[in-house]
Design the sequence.
């Protein structure tokens, strides 16, 4: 999560917080079921002395409040400044499912809005047809506060729908999209999903070097997809040293 990355980066630069600040932080986290009490504990942490710890404490309170009280969570963020405040508003938007909070997220605003869009698309039926994305996607993109002609937003919507769909990947179906921009976003999404699936299968040790692909990787015949497969076979799918073991606990 972005919050954890920022906290780690800042913590590396801070001096270790004094025991009192660490104790207040721990007590606040334990009291999150009573956000007002948790916030009071956060306010005892001196942000000049322990900036990362003070910010993390308020982030936790904002996250706890956001699903039921977005305004209250926003008030918690107002006690922060700079990147800490911007990340806090990102957290509020995530927890409240309200893209309006992204407007306060500063340098994280676009990522925040793209997250809201992705969350919306993930809630759509898993078997949605690609030609339905143009209609439903427009509302989701606008609700996320993104421009209706944003190519990255459209590609994100198509990519989620494509990734959630059942094989085979159907890049040729993108030709039915209403505009050249939508066709391009749809096609790029299909190509990206194939690349991801090939990499994931390679890392699981699947035999991909020659012959037909496994059913889960199948795609409707298409010259571009054929070229992607050929390029990947030349680059890494036939190289046993390119196989990366899955992370611990992965299936």
Sequence:
């Amino acid at each position: 999560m972005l919050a954890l990355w920022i906290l780690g980066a800042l913590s590396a630069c801070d001096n270790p917080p004094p025991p009192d600040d660490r104790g207040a932080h721990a007590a606040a986290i334990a009291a999150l079921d009573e956000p007002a009490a948790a916030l009071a504990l956060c306010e005892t942490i001196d942000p000049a002395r322990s900036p990362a710890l003070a910010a993390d404490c308020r982030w936790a309170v904002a996250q706890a409040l956001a699903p039921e009280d977005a305004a209250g969570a926003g008030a918690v963020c107002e006690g922060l400044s700079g990147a800490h405040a911007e990340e806090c508003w990102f957290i509020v938007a995530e927890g409240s499912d309200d893209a309006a909070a992204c407007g306060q997220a500063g340098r994280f605003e676009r990522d925040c809005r793209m997250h809201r869009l992705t969350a919306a698309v993930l809630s759509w039926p898993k078997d949605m047809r690609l030609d339905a994305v143009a209609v439903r996607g427009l509302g989701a993109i606008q609700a996320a506060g993104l421009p209706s002609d944003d190519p990255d937003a459209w590609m994100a919507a198509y990519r989620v729908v494509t990734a959630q769909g059942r094989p085979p990947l159907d890049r040729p179906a993108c030709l039915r999209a209403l505009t050249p921009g939508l066709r391009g976003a749809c096609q790029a999404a299909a190509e990206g999903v194939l690349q991801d699936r090939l990499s994931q299968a390679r890392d699981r040790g699947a035999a991909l070097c020659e012959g037909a692909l496994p059913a889960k990787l199948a795609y409707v015949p298409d010259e571009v997809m054929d070229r992607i497969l050929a390029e990947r076979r030349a680059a890494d799918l036939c190289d046993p040293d390119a196989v990366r073991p899955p992370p611990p606990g992965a299936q």
